[in-house]
Amino acid sequence: MAIYKVTVATGDMVEAGTNNFISITLVGSYGESRQTTVSFLFQPGKERSLSVHCGQDLGPIVLIRLHKWRLFLEDAWFCKDVRVTAPNGTLYRFPCYQWLEGVTTVEVREGSGKKLVDDKLQILKEHRRQELAARQEAYRWKDFAQGWPRCLNVDSILELDSNVQFSSIRATNFTGFLIFQGASHFLSGFLLRRTSWNSLDEMRTIFSRTQGRDIGGCLVL
């Protein structure tokens, strides 16, 4: 009997938790475990620990499968990461950092960076192929207008997967920044100006209030 210690962490953002059932399957180079229930209650910023019992040593753990299905009402769950400790003490880390929505199964590779040539197991090669196919299906290009750069083939950002949309926190911060900028330019006389600039120094006095501010990870000059 081989016993694996598993810790599942939920992100700390608003509504990251879920009341849906979450289970896990460990996949090693020698075999895989049975699907084991983690919990049906996850709170933001919290961790859940469990033991996964296997009839034999699974070998190096190369990926995990997270399974989510409804209990009563659907609510999305944001998985931060999963840590697996093997019977010999080896720690495997699986960074997830994505939303799981609906009834779904998500495969997450072990966190060590590897190139295509490093994938010796067929299951890893298949995982990489499926991941590439899914991205090609999700992100298609279209021509918005002649001479313009290519654009995503969607009519609205709401058509994109929630994992690539702005989070509610970033969207709120971005909107707040735009309001601040508009108010700042209004108070400084920029929006009401009816004449041309007299010099570069005059322009610098208008924009100096935002110069060098780090907004949402972008440096505004």
Automatic annotation (TrEMBL):
Record flagged with keyword Metal-binding: yes
Annotated compartments: Cytoplasm
Claim: DNA damage is one of the keywords in the record? no
Any one annotated GO CC term: cytoplasm
Please give the InterPro entries that the UniProt record associates with this protein. Answer: LipOase, LipOase_C, LipOase_C_sf, LipOase_mml, PLAT/LH2_dom, PLAT/LH2_dom_sf, PLAT_LOX_verte
Annotated binding of Ca(2+), by residue: 17, 75-76
- Under which pathway is this protein filed? Lipid metabolism
Q: What name appears for this protein in its UniProt entry?
A: LOXE3 isomerase
The scientific name of the source species is Machaerirhynchus nigripectus
